[in-house]
From TrEMBL:
Alphabetical list of InterPro entries matching this protein: Aldolase_TIM (IPR013785), DeoC (IPR011343), DeoC/FbaB/LacD_aldolase (IPR002915), DeoC_typeI (IPR028581)
Gene source species: Gulosibacter macacae
Record's catalysed reaction(s): 2-deoxy-D-ribose 5-phosphate = D-glyceraldehyde 3-phosphate + acetaldehyde
Subcellular location: Cytoplasm
Gene3D superfamilies tied to this protein: Aldolase class I
One GO BP annotation of this record: deoxyribonucleotide catabolic process
Domain of life: Bacteria
EC assignment: 4.1.2.4
GO CC entries: cytoplasm
Identification of the protein by name: Deoxyribose-phosphate aldolase
Molecular function via GO: deoxyribose-phosphate aldolase activity
Amino acid sequence: MTLKLTRNELAQYIDHTLLATDATNDDVAALYVEAAELGVYAICVSPNMLPVGGAWGSLDPDADEAAVAESAPKLATVVGFPSGKHHSNIKAVEAARAVTDGADELDMVIDIGMLKAGRPELVEQDIATVRRAAPAPTVLKVIIESAALTDDEIVQACEAAERAGADYVKTSTGFHKDGGATVEAVALMRKTVGDRLGVKASGGVRTYEDAMAMIEAGASRLGMSSGAAVLADAPAE
């Protein structure tokens, strides 16, 4: 490992994530508070956990709400999660509702079966439908489940995402049986999209060393549920 980011530098790569099926509203409020204290870029929660309202009040009751909101983490949620086996129009409705409920960013799951059936054009249409329902400035990240794909399929998925107007390609949901992010997949995704799109590594990023390896390979964002522990191991300066 040659790259070494400080705690504050690394925090700006992190989507502090809670997608557990048994998560409660109190858990999400606590996540938001922890995220603000850690200085991470965003939190990522299930769509029915939005809007996340009033969490900043517990940070400092005397703080100026507008000022706190300005420095608060972005709000991200998931679409078509975790299987991607949803009709495109359902994903679009879910995406539009999430934006209405305060989401700044959407992490949508493709139907990898379409890709494996040799129909990347249908994957592109699926992504484009969500993009139309949630246009910029909403950030759209496309989850491709890289561990379940061949290298050629990873390239096809990334190309489809770019053509459809996505802002990021993302490795994994963290729920697939074949696993999560790998350095090799992140490097291939970065090679495919160049500097035109972001690359998010997610699934199995649990240590400071994991995080540095993914960033060195080309990740510009990291999805993790263990962000506090990872940042605790990062150098302060």
